[in-house]
Amino acid sequence: MNKKKKIFDFLVYVLIFVFVFGFIIYTGRHSAFGKFVSGVENKAFDTRQNLILSRKQNNDKIVIIAVDDPSYEYITENFGTWPAPRSFWAKLINGLEVANPKFIAFDLLFAKRLETQDKGDLELIEAVKNNKNVYLSMNFDNYPSQIRKPPVLPENLGFDIKNGGIIKNSPYLHFKNCRNAMDELLEVTSNFGFINVTRDEDGIIRYFAPMFYYNGAFYPNLTTMIAMKYLNISPEHLHVDKMNRLVLDKDHKIPLNPDGRAIINWYGKEGTFEHVSLWEVDNAINRSDIEYLKQKFEGKIIYIGTTVTALSDVKSTPVSFMYPGVETHATFLNNILDNNFITHLSFKADMFISIVICIFIGYLILRLESIPFSILCCAAIIAFYLVFALFAMEFFNLWLGVVLPVFSATLIIIAAYIAKYLLKSRDYEHTYKLAVTDGLTELYNHRYFQEQMILNVQNVCRYGGVFSLILIDIDFFKNFNDAHGHQSGDAVLRQVAQTIKRNIRTSDIACRYGGEEMSIILTNTKKEDAITTAKKIWSAIREKKFELADGTRTNVTISVGVAGMPDDGKTPQEIIEYADKCLYKAKQNGRNRVESKV
Q1: What whole-number distance in Å separates Cα of residue 596 and Cα of residue 598?
Q2: Please, what is the Cα angle at 316 between 310 and 320, to 5 degrees?
Q3: Which of 149, 317, 544, 560 is deepest in the core (most CB within 10 A)?
Q4: 278 touches 71 (CB < 8 A)
Q5: What is the pLDDT of residue 431?
């Protein structure tokens, strides 16, 4: 019996497990639930990124020349407007080249020639032409052709990527139009990259696109282009491997999400990379302060971009809501050089982790008897996993899902405790039934009879009303046992008990009083009605053929005594005594009869 109970309990927990994960998979198909999980998961990612910031070190070879608030005012004071004239940027390039920087990258667009500043355009073109380490920007969009005719970009800007379908087919990376640079710049240099960024639904930048697809060719992000030049990587070697990683070389691989984007590993809040104000650099160039320029920029990768909120190039990121756009490019470059991107495990991996956690939690709940202790253990398991997920991101750059495992574990805990409560209730009811039931006849036992007698007397005394008692004795049962054996006697006792139960109401309480005696408590029943019931039982037993242990059949008879409250007594003892006297009278009068008066 105990083994069957364990198997049943185990099957119940398995069904709960299947139900919970079936529910998760079913609801996961609905976009609203998926968006909710994705939103919470993104916030959990942001929290982990902020917790591990202090233990990260950015690359000090990357420097940002910032168009900050003082520099913005400096330019508008000197030139009357923003943007600064092209001649200013030409002078900046030539002045920085004196310091021998590794690269100069503009997170700024030089889209069209400015006819009123034709000389400045020519100076910029000449500066870019003469300095092969200068990199410029363009950006893609999906403007309709009626607004801007999609330009045909020079062939030397695009290239092919083997197995690049993940990029080609991504809605984030496939574009129909382009805001290109002025034609003369495209003629003098192929050092162009694209500066598109993508935001999640909450407006936060967590992903970066290393490549884009436009008009039949792949084009690099500005930062990807710089990294390729820095690492001396030829475009024809680029490919996407079986693990969905954009392979630059054997030591530098960018893991891609199913949408072709990479997950940025952030190094700190805004200002993590060294910022040098544009106005300070311009002043150093004007006074030919080569020592200052070399100290700041020699051998460095320079990004030039705006950090002014008014110029709309401040982004929301997991680590800051006021993160300069130019610094996102610096962070992306740092990720490439350190091979330090975050890899997000798949939904299948999250599901597997959830199953393992839920199995462990379910086992604990099943095994531990103490509910407070088991809840504490379950909470400890969830807390341990959250800490493990934090360490996985810090030391292994793995983004382990936390929403699905925690949500699954919570559902399992709730469902398992409900099941445990119901199973325990069932066990309690079964144990209680065993405690108050006679094993042979399956009638209630003498202990339960005494409890119910007290309860019925109390109810009549308190609320009024009536109840009756029937006592039954099998005639000459000792002689029957001696003649036919105890097994036949037990068979008769069982059949008499079943006959009694078939001839009373479900509200009536049939008990084995002792030996061959049985009793019936009839709640809210007048004595006259009890006499009718007694005669019905007496008649049914008299007419029944009882099967004995050897297969033969015989008749038995019963003697019956009936008592009622309040007429025949005020206490349980008085009522039992009256019914017993009636039963004794029935025996004296020849047995096989019903008596209700002493």
Answers
A1: 7
A2: 105
A3: 560
A4: yes
A5: 64
The number of helix segments (H) and strand segments (E) in the chain equals 19, 26
**560, 555, 564: which is closest to 589 by C-alpha?**
560
DSSP-assigned beta bridge partners for residue 384: none
Collapsing DSSP to helix, strand or coil, 313 comes out as: coil
Q: Tell me the H-state helices in 437-589.
A: 446-463, 477-484, 486-502, 527-543, 572-588
- Contacts with 227 (C-beta within 8 Å, 6 or more apart), sequence order: 233, 248, 252, 333, 336, 337
Q: What are 160's two structure tokens?
A: 């092919």
The DSSP code for 309 is G
pLDDT(427) > 60 = no
pLDDT of residue 118: 65
Predicted confidence at residue 310, as pLDDT, reads: 77
CA dist 60 and 334 (Å) reads 9
Between β-strands 274-277 and 211-214, what pairing exists: parallel, antiparallel or unpaired? unpaired
Mean pLDDT lowest among 44-48, 189-193, 307-311: 307-311
Pair of tokens at residue 44: 């959990």
Which H or E run contains 435?
helix 403-436
**Residues 521-579: tens digit of each pLDDT:** 999 999 999 999 999 999 999 999 999 988 899 999 999 999 999 999 999 999 999 99
Report how far residue 129's alpha carbon sits from residue 575's, in angstroms, rounded to the nearest whole number.
Answer: 119
Token output for 402: 């936390």
